[in-house]
Design a protein that fits this description.
Elements: H1 28-53, E1 54-69, E2 74-79, E3 86-87, E4 92-98, H2 101-158, H3 164-209, E5 218-222, E6 227-232, E7 238-240, E8 245-261, E9 274-278, E10 284-298, E11 312-320, H4 326-330, E12 336-342
Antiparallel strand pairs: 1-8, 1-12, 2-4, 2-7, 3-6, 4-5, 6-8, 8-11, 9-10, 9-12, 10-11
Helix pairs in contact: 2-3
């Protein structure tokens, strides 16, 4: 019997090669979903951080200012300054007249009456001055004679012709005359000073009344402090009515940001705390809380949403942390800014 062997003959199929496994494709939709989910998570964490750790409120850049207005209607005759001009204390800003002629007429008559009173006082002082001058002349002559007599008496005393007592009496008389003469000299000096002062006051009244009497209504407004001229509300020869502003004097060095905190955030407001201010151009600078007001204030219209109840907030003044930042703050006057305060830490 023939042995069987697997090796005999040619095998039709020796082995079977497996096909390579297909490469897994990237699921783009799933990747985009994961990325979107991560972005949403980061945004949610960021918003949560801002809500819990950062107080973000609205503010406005302002300056200390002096509003010039009157309790009566006036006519501004001539302006001597323009908007943006820098002024010093004592500068004359404008000339004006009172619209009520009766008031100006009464003022003018009062000035005239004062001038007449001054004239009467000057005449009376000059009369008394003439009397004192005459009395001074008499005393000077008397003193000259007494001194001559004293010299004669001194010679007689040396010859034992008169007693020493008479010489002493003459000396006392001379001392009394000298005292009277000195008193009169002082009185004459004081009267001359009075006349000069009254003449100076009369000159001031004359300037107020006007040289020819036609400009007695005009007055001048003098700046009470230095600053920068802001908005001017009137033109030359225009009437400014009672309570209206003629112009505004700003204090550029006293620039600040007024921020409006919610009443629920009152515990976070502390004098000296540092805040971050973002200006309209995107720049950020540091500021310090300088003071806060006891009373609450209504939000300005630009910060108050329409159709919502009026919101009352805590008003806070913020000043520049560095003096070098003052100029940058000035250029954003009356512009809105964003104020950020860290809840934790300074």
């Amino acid at each position: 019997m023939q042995e069987f062997s697997f090796r005999q003959g040619n095998a039709t199929i020796r082995h079977l090669k497996e096909m390579p496994a297909p490469k897994k494709k990237i699921n783009i939709d799933r990747l985009l979903f994961v990325i979107l989910l991560a972005l949403v998570a980061v945004y949610a964490i960021f918003r949560l951080y801002k809500g819990l750790a950062i107080i973000e409120i609205n503010g406005m850049v302002t300056m200390e200012k002096l509003d010039v207005h009157f309790t009566d209607d006036i006519r501004v005759n001539e302006l001597f300054v323009e908007e943006g001009a820098t002024i010093a204390e004592g500068d004359t800003l404008f000339r004006y007249t009172n619209q009520y002629f009766e008031n100006d007429a009464a003022s003018y008559m009062n000035i005239v009456s004062n001038k007449e009173r001054i004239d009467r006082e000057v005449i009376d002082i000059r009369r008394r001055l003439l009397e004192k001058t005459s009395e001074r002349t008499i005393l000077q002559k008397r003193l000259q004679e007494q001194r001559f007599d004293l010299q004669t008496t001194r010679q007689l005393v040396s010859l034992a012709a008169v007693s020493k007592t008479e010489f002493d009496n003459q000396e006392r008389d001379i001392a009394s005359t000298e005292d009277k003469l000195e008193l009169i000299r002082r009185e004459v000096q004081f009267m001359n000073i009075q006349i000069d002062q009254l003449n100076g006051l009369k000159g001031e009244y004359s300037n107020m009344a006007g040289i020819n009497g036609s400009a007695f209504q005009s007055r001048y407004y003098v700046a009470l402090k230095e600053g920068l001229i802001g908005q001017i509300g009137v033109e030359n020869n225009e009437v400014c009515y009672k309570g209206d502003e003629v112009l505004t004097i700003h204090q550029p060095r006293l620039v600040k940001v007024q921020a409006f905190f919610n009443q629920s955030e009152a515990d976070e407001i502390e004098i000296g705390r540092t805040v971050t201010i973002q200006f309209p151009d995107g720049t950020k600078q540091k500021g310090s809380i300088d003071r806060f007001y006891v009373s609450t204030y209504e939000l300005p219209p630009e910060f108050q949403k329409k159709y919502e109840p009026t919101t009352r907030s805590i008003l806070v003044d913020i000043v520049p942390l560095n003096e070098s930042d003052v100029r940058n703050w000035q250029q954003f006057y009356k512009m809105n800014v964003q104020v950020k305060l860290q809840r934790y830490g300074n």
